[in-house]
Amino acid sequence: MTPRPHPKPSEVNLHVMASSPLSVARSDIHGNTVYSRILLSIPDEEYEAILPHLEFIELPLHQSLHESPDGLEYGYFLNLGLTSLVIKTQDGRSVEVGIVGREGFVGVPLAAGLTLTPYRAVVQAKGNGFRIKAEVLEVTLSVTPSLRLRLNQYAQARHAGGAVSRV
After folding, report:
1. pTM, full prediction
2. Contact 138, 145 (CB under 8 A)
3. What is the mean pLDDT of residues 3-28?
4. Would you call 15 exposed, middle or buried from its count of C-beta atoms within 10 A (0-12, 13-18, 19+)?
5. pLDDT at site 69
6. Can you give the pLDDT at residue 160?
7. Is 74 contained in some domain?
8. Residue 153 falls within a domain, yes or no?
9. Which of 57, 64, 82, 157 places its Cα 20 to 30 Å from the Cα of 38?
10. What would the pLDDT profile of 104-133 be if each residue is shown by its tens digit?
11. In terms of Cα–Cα distance, which of 117, 110, 99 is closest to 147?
């Protein structure tokens, strides 16, 4: 098999890169830039549907996004920073079971209509992101099939291979 020569830079089709979902520039209604890979990957009409419900928030170090017995009040699309997913063992120790960054979503059970989760979510590297009320997300997912798919794909990837973050 003869190796194919690499194209010269002038021959590269730049249109492919420009149409990549992650190259889309988006912001919220207040002008805050969106870096969440999930929010950047959905079609414009779906982003427009969820946009009015996104609340930009700062995420200071050690902030708890949710505690396991309290249920999920919000879901979080991170822009910057890292959040640890932590469970408490029977002997009282805390164990990190996952990490979420801008590639993911904190509150994955919400994509399946669930509000309970076995873990706490705690900010481990300060940053910012967008939150959405759980009940609003549930309604919004019924009219945003690409977003629902992306959240389900993320949930499956986390379940199958653990949470790996690329910040």
Report:
1. 0.80
2. no
3. 49
4. exposed
5. 74
6. 65
7. yes
8. yes
9. 64
10. 999 999 998 899 988 899 999 999 999 999
11. 110
- pLDDT for 161 equals 56
How far is CA 148 from its chain centroid? 12
Neighbours of 37 (CB within 10 A): 20
- Region of 97 (left: φ > 0; alpha: ψ -120 to 50; beta: rest) is alpha
**11 occurs within a structural domain:** no
Report the C-alpha gap between 158 and 5 in whole angstroms.
37
Burial of 163 (0-12, 13-18, 19+ CB in 10 A): buried
Domain that holds residue 42: 31-160
Task: Tell me which residue has tokens 């993320």.
Answer: 154
CATH value at residue 53: 2.60.120.10
CA-CA distance, 159 to 108, in Å (whole number)? Answer: 11
Distance CA 129, CA 77 (A): 6
* Three-state DSSP class for residue 141: helix
Answer whether residue 85 is part of any domain: yes
One-letter amino acid of 116 = L
What is the rounded end-to-end Cα distance, in angstroms, of the chain? 39
What crossing angle do the helices spanning 134-141 and 145-161 adopt, rounded to 10°?
110
Tokens of 82: 């890292």
How many domains does the chain contain in total? 1
